[in-house]
Amino acid sequence: MNWDVLLHWMTHVGEGSWATFRNAVARLAGDDADVDYWCRTLRVVMSDLGHVDFFVDDSRRWRVRAPVLGGLPPPQGVAALAGGRTPKLSATLSEAVTARACRLVEDCVAEGLPSFKVEGPRQWLAAAAADAAIPYIEDFVGALCQEIVPIPLHIQRARAETAPGNWSVRSFDFRTLTWVDGIRPRSACEFRSRYGERRFYVHTRRGELLRLPKRQAVYAAAMISEVVLSEYELASSTLFAPTSAPLPEAYCRAACMCSGSPAQIDRGRFVFKNVPFDVAAFLLLAAGQPGPAHPRVRLASEESVHGQPI
């Protein structure tokens, strides 16, 4: 299946409802395809690679992001094509890249959705983007981090609501990392109506229900309960998050664009590669998680045992 056609159509339309997205996926996938699987997969990949915003403003709508050539963290001389795209834009960028003696690299993600990266000196990457009439953002990950609203600020801005009447309720259990029946204190809660409408909240220490998007609610509850969900491995520059408790979408996008590739899944965790220390520290602290130890602190501690020099 060529999912690039889907992105072309979404770029042409600009925005729409979840129902229109699902219908388009179903038409392209064919009669025997698992539409739910493809909707989940494509939503995650298109969001993580910076093409589309889903569930805009906590709604059931999507919106295509403006095209941009985004520089990946150094020392890579690489930029990724993010945002919406059309066949004309892809062809124009290919011509511009060739003219500037750069190299266009095409990878396949999500079993049929290509991703495009441009390799070359920084000044030529900017020139190729200008020739294709799209912006070039040298520090693309930094720009994505600026879009992130930290979890403490989400909690501060959230409004308290009363529990919906006659709705079923589940809570996120941090011990098993699963959703369980009933409401639990200091946890994320999902209320569902008999018609399938869902609302997510975080249950605070004072017993209030603060309405938040699903992923933000889980991490807000983790912060309140002092639960560690996501971690960073300094030696491999790798960020980890549970598949059952993924980081909020904007966080995943910034982490993925450190390498320009979707996260891998290993032993029940999302694995984000090539994440610089400063980016990982920002993402973890913004998510209300413990920040990683600074490399200098770690080196200093490794030079002694029980307070004595080695």
Structural descriptors:
single chain, 310 residues, alpha+beta, 6-stranded antiparallel β-sheet, 5-stranded mixed β-sheet, 20 strands, 36% helix, globular, disordered C terminus
Low-confidence stretches: 297-310
Mean pLDDT: 92
* End-to-end Cα distance: 59 Å
* Largest β sheet strand count, sense and barrel closure: 6 strands, antiparallel
Secondary structure: number of strands: 20
Strand content: 25-35%
| Structural class based on helices, strands and sheet pairing | alpha+beta
> Number of domains in the coordinates?
3
- Main-sheet strand order equals 9-14-13-12-10-11
Radius of gyration using CA atoms only: 21 Å
What is the approximate shape?
globular
Count of discrete alpha- or pi-helical segments spanning 4 or more residues:
11
Helix content: 25-40%
